[in-house]
């Protein structure tokens, strides 16, 4: 074999290993030292988790916008979706992209930061500054990895409540979120009804369906089948299960879209070529797009966090927690609800939202329901949807008048 080739190959392998190790250090630091405010809770203030674990010390990373009024009555909590984070209205520190909900939140927008004090925290179990599997375990000095306790949606909400207590916010004017964020909204309204004046769960469900659990399991298996996963110890090994996480993201991303949206954007068009290559290259534009989604995702997200957060969604079943009757989760609630769905969302179809509305009706809870005509699929709640903005603004403005804001 050519010795020059061998030397170059070895040098390349060293560079890859060095880059992986550097990236691992970066990921660990980002998990504990994000570019946002962080609220620290000592070992004497542990988070009581559904698994029976008591997590402490721990921290929650968050961002805010607007000003809390003197009566502390204008607070809005934004709950992020599966791979979102606290950067809802600020440029993302890793990708440089705008905040993920700047379409809905900001001066003059439905969640008007000139009127409301908006808080968004990174959920427990994630990787952007709130304690999760990439954080250092104080008992071992090593990243938690799979030693991190399993997280539930209720654990996320309990941690958010502790954050709000620290911020001096007794109750919320509005709790709003989509997808996994919508699950948190429902959990907030059920667990702390006296602390939620208005709730807007969007594109979500009161439980995760068997189909959704199945999609998540495919993603988790892709990650765990990657040799670089190292049984969850990749940060210490200086490796990174990029291929597995990328495949998991590609599969999940398909569920966030709709066939009309995919067809309009890509159709069967080829990628920078006039004819098929008769290979397994990314011949089609949709293949190239999915590969790009997978690659860009691994630059900002931790593989173990993906395992934990998908599991939290799988475990969510609000009716099961209340004797199998969903209405019991909201019995006696005075919270004003606005439930919103999208006609082309096949991840959380409108039927899931109707089940929530029927349960609220059954216990005489005040609820409005909006089904938005859209062909953009599940991710419509993150996109430019004038009907959603109009409905959200109408509901929030009416709730603000009732609240005296």
Features:
11 helices; alpha/beta; two-stranded antiparallel sheet; disordered N terminus; globular
What does this structure look like?
This protein is an alpha/beta fold and 405 residues long. It has 11 helices and 10 strands. The chain has helices at 3-32, 153-166, 180-191, 210-225, 234-237, 242-256, 259-265, 285-298, 303-315, 350-362, 386-403; strands spanning 38-41, 47-48, 54-55, 58-65, 75-79, 117-121, 172-178, 196-202, 336-342, 367-372. Strands 1-4-6-5-7-8-9-10 form an 8-stranded mixed beta sheet, with helices on both faces. Helix 3 links the parallel strand 7 (172-178) and strand 8. Helix 2 (153-166) crosses helix 3 (180-191) and helix 4 (210-225) packs antiparallel against helix 9. The longest helix is centred in the N-terminal third of the chain and has 30 residues, at 3-32. 45% of the residues are buried.
Terminal CA distance: 76 Å
What sequence of helices (H) and strands (E) makes up the elements?
HEEEEEEHEHEHHHHHHEHEH
Number of separate helices? 11
Oligomer: single chain
């Amino acid at each position: 074999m050519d010795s020059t080739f061998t030397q170059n190959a070895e040098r390349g392998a060293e560079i890859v290993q060095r880059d992986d190790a550097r990236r691992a250090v970066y990921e660990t630091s980002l998990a504990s030292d994000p570019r946002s405010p962080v609220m620290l809770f000592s070992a004497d203030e542990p988070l009581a988790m559904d698994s029976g674990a008591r997590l402490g010390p721990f921290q929650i990373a968050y961002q805010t916008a607007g000003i809390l009024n003197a009566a502390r009555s204008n607070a809005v909590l934004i709950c992020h979706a599966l791979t979102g984070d606290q950067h809802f209205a600020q440029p993302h520190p890793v990708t440089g992209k705008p905040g993920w909900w700047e379409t809905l939140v900001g001066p003059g927008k439905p969640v008007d930061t000139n009127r409301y004090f908006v808080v968004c925290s990174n959920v427990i179990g994630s990787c952007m500054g709130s304690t999760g599997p990439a954080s250092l375990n104080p008992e071992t000095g090593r990243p938690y990895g799979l030693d991190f306790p399993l997280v539930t949606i209720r654990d996320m909400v309990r941690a958010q409540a502790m954050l709000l207590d620290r911020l001096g916010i007794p109750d919320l004017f509005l709790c709003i979120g989509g997808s996994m964020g919508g699950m948190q909204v429902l959990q907030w309204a059920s667990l702390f009804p006296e602390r939620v004046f208005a709730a807007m769960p969007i594109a979500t469900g009161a439980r995760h369906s068997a189909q959704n659990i199945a999609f998540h399991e495919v993603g988790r298996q892709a990650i765990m089948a990657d040799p670089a996963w190292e049984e969850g110890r990749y940060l210490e090994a200086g490796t990174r299960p990029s291929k597995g996480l990328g495949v998991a993201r590609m599969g999940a991303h398909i569920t966030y879209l709709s066939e009309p949206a995919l067809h309009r954007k890509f159709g069967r068009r080829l990628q920078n070529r006039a004819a098929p290559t008769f290979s397994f290259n990314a011949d089609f534009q949709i293949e190239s797009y999915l590969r790009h989604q997978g690659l860009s995702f691994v630059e900002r997200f931790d593989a173990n966090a993906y395992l934990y957060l998908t599991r939290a969604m799988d475990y969510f079943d609000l009716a099961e927690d209340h004797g199998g009757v969903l209405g019991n989760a909201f019995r006696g609630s005075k919270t004003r609800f606005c439930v919103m769905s999208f006609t082309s969302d096949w991840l959380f179809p409108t039927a899931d939202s109707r089940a929530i509305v029927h349960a609220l009706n059954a216990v005489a809870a005040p609820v409005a329901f909006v089904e938005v005509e859209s062909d953009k699929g599940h991710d419509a709640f993150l996109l430019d949807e004038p009907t959603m903005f109009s409905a959200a603004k109408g509901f929030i403005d009416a709730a603000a008048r009732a609240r005296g804001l």
